[in-house]
Design goal:
Helix content: 25-40%
Strand order of the largest sheet: 3-2-4-5-6
Shape: globular
Oligomer: single chain
CATH architecture: 3-Layer(aba) Sandwich
Strand content: 25-35%
Length: 178
């Protein structure tokens, strides 16, 4: 049987979802004071950059921004030998920050757990909120996003892929069925 590809969101749909998430973040946090966006490398960092741009357009003020690599915090590190270690880039103190942790797709919750462990090793923020472009279900840990672009329940054998353009802007979301 051939694999089936279904476009879940096109460029306009992705843009609407990101704009809505940006507004929700600003509303919940009453603006950008003490707010920081941290994207999980790599897809989450790209999404975080797009959210940052939208927040700046909406508020007229910049927001603290960083990226985090979770490779060394993964609970499957010993079973995966081909993981490249990336760079964490957080150039501000986390104390008293309201962190919005950002990733492209939420599945089991294990990457988010690893990211929270990495953040806590850097500092102790006021709180950590979670923004996700696609929530596909199948949680193995009690992780719940605060901001969701699209809920998309999937079968375990299906894959979700976020397509990025040459400037690392999300262009579309596809579901692959085997």
């Amino acid at each position: 049987m051939a694999a089936e590809t279904i476009e879940i969101l096109d460029t306009d749909g992705v843009n609407r979802a990101l704009t809505r998430i940006a507004h929700e973040i600003l509303e919940r946090n009453k603006g950008v004071k003490d707010l920081a966006l941290i994207g999980i490398r790599t897809g989450g960092a790209y999404i975080a950059s797009q959210l940052r741009q939208r927040i700046v357009e909406i508020e007229g003020k910049d927001v603290l921004f960083g990226t985090i690599d979770v490779t060394m915090y993964r609970d499957d590190l010993c079973t995966r030998s081909n993981l490249a270690v990336g760079q964490t880039d957080i150039k501000f103190p986390l104390k008293n920050c309201k962190i919005v942790l950002i990733d492209d797709v939420l599945f089991t919750g294990r990457t988010i757990r690893a990211a929270m462990d990495a953040i806590m090793d850097i500092g102790r923020p006021e709180n950590i909120q979670l923004a996700i472009l696609v929530d596909r279900g199948h949680r193995e840990l009690p992780i719940r996003p605060d901001y969701i672009g699209r809920n998309l329940p999937t079968a375990r054998n299906e894959q979700i892929e976020v397509d990025f353009d040459a400037e690392y802007k999300a262009q579309a979301i596809h579901l692959f069925r085997k």
